């Protein structure tokens, strides 16, 4: 489990085509400290498994399903990525509960800078609209964010300078894809309420 609090901005240093999968080599000195084979690291919000690790880099295999359902398929050598290790048991939950299971992708539609923050508008797939509410939580490229406005096909988030400086959202431009993970609690509530309705 993750919290959506990005630990560092890493970089893709190699991409190997494995036919029905890809192997990424990623540099991240913070998240690789103490890393070992089989550990989990979230890359732009996608939970990946460490295959190899040496120094400040690690490799991870990404199957076709993940490449097709997330924005990881668009990564290339030199791409910057948000990296986060799983939350340690007993640690503070600084963001919200993030599983690292991407629900869909959106597209940056618009950026509106102001003096001390920036509003970013992102498209929202129709099947995820019901899970996104004003002042609720959403994960964008692995970043735990608060929804400012929830529209029928989009939402907006307000980004502080720290988020702009230390994550990929400071660099994303209109047209760029982003990974989205909605609040898992909303999905559980929907399932439970549906079950109650069926029982009645």
Characterise this structure.
This protein is mainly β and 200 residues long. It is built from 3 helices and 12 strands. It has helices spanning 64-69, 161-166, 184-199; strands at residues 8-17, 21-27, 40-43, 46-54, 57-63, 80-84, 104-113, 118-123, 137-140, 143-150, 154-159, 177-182. It has a 6-stranded antiparallel barrel with strand order 1-2-5-4-3-6. The chain has a 6-stranded antiparallel barrel with strand order 7-8-11-10-9-12. Strand 1 (8-17) and strand 2 (21-27) form a beta hairpin. It is globular and about 45 Å long. It starts with 7 loop residues before the first strand and ends with a helix. The relative contact order is 0.19.
Radius of gyration: 17 Å
What proportion of the residues is helical, as a percent range?
10-25%
Beta-strand segment tally: 12
**Spatial order of strands in the largest sheet:** 1-2-5-4-3-6
Largest sheet, strands/sense/barrel: 6 strands, antiparallel, barrel
Q: What share of the residues does DSSP label as strand, in percent?
A: 35-45%
Q: Any idea what the shape is?
A: globular
Catalytic activity: 2 6,7-dimethyl-8-(1-D-ribityl)lumazine + H(+) = 5-amino-6-(D-ribitylamino)uracil + riboflavin
Keywords: Repeat, Riboflavin biosynthesis, Transferase
Pathway: Cofactor biosynthesis; riboflavin biosynthesis; riboflavin from 2-hydroxy-3-oxobutyl phosphate and 5-amino-6-(D-ribitylamino)uracil: step 2/2
Function: Catalyzes the dismutation of two molecules of 6,7-dimethyl-8-ribityllumazine, resulting in the formation of riboflavin and 5-amino-6-(D-ribitylamino)uracil.
